[in-house]
Amino acid sequence: MLKDALAHRHSHYGLRPEWVAPRETVEDLIGHVLQTVPSAFNSQPVRMVLLTGEAHTAHWKLVEDALISIMGQEAYEANTAAKIRQAFASGIGTVLFFDVPSVTEGLQASFPAYAANFPLWAQQVQGSHQHAVWMGLDMLGFGASLQHYIGMVDSDIKALAGVDASWVLSAQMPFGAPLAEAEGKEKLPLSETFIVK
Ligand SMILES: Cc1cc2nc3c(=O)[nH]c(=O)nc-3n(C[C@H](O)[C@H](O)[C@H](O)COP(=O)(O)O)c2cc1C
User: Fold this and answer.
1) How far apart are CA 51 and CA 93, in angstroms?
2) In this prediction, what percent of the chain has a pLDDT beyond 90?
3) Which residues form the signal peptide (predicted)?
């Protein structure tokens, strides 16, 4: 049921490196999301890379090294290391989400009247894909979270992922076996967020 799936997905910040569903099922999920989630003008500006094993570990090492060089080892160990190691690197895989800017540029050239909208729509389409993958991983029994360690070592991450240098890294979704049930967060009352006329 969609309502149950929506309600059960939360951010998981404690992960174990275990395939709670087969890796092939996760690949199938990601492919299905790419084949079904809508995009403006059916433009399909999203690409995903599934990192597992050494590639997953190497990705979080790149992020860790970048954070250490920015924050210094001491501040990193005090503030951030536990999260990187126990919530992200400790998972079984990471989904990388990329945007292909040439798709948006092509749409802007073809439909100048909507030029200002296309970059916004590309971001919205990222969100649709990210939510769908997140919910799908949750339904398979994984815990996951949405991360944005971007703008630090994007070139290295793209080289690791083997993708075109022109793609733009949008988000990372580390996942694995959840260590605990995640609590739902407080939401605004519907009286503030929803109007029926
Ligand atoms: C667009 C977007 C960006 C987010 N960025 C981050 C992030 O960089 N790091 C993080 O830990 N969580 C991030 N989150 C997770 C939200 O904080 C979280 O989904 C929200 O507080 C609701 O909690 P829940 O996921 O447990 O239901 C992001 C969520 C969204 C939708």
Assistant:
1) 5
2) 99
3) none
Confidence grade of residue 1 (pLDDT, cut at 50, 70, 90):
confident
Q: How many domains does the chain have?
A: 1
Rounded to whole angstroms, what are the CA distances from 52 to 83, 89, 138, 173, 181?
A: 19, 11, 17, 12, 23
**Cα angle 175-9-136, degrees, rounded to a multiple of 5:** 65
Name the residue with the closest Cα to ligand 1, atom 2.
Answer: 146
Compute, in angstroms, the gap from residue 145 CA to the centroid of ligand 1: 7
Measured in Å, residue 32 CA sits from the centre of ligand 1 at 23
DSSP 148: -
**Alpha carbon distances (Å) from 196 to 3, 6, 133:** 19, 21, 30
CATH number of the domain at 118, please: 3.40.109.10
Question: How sure is the predictor about 3, in pLDDT bands with cuts at 50, 70 and 90?
Answer: very high
**Domain annotation covers residue 187:** no
Which of the four pLDDT bands, split at 50, 70 and 90, describes residue 113? very high
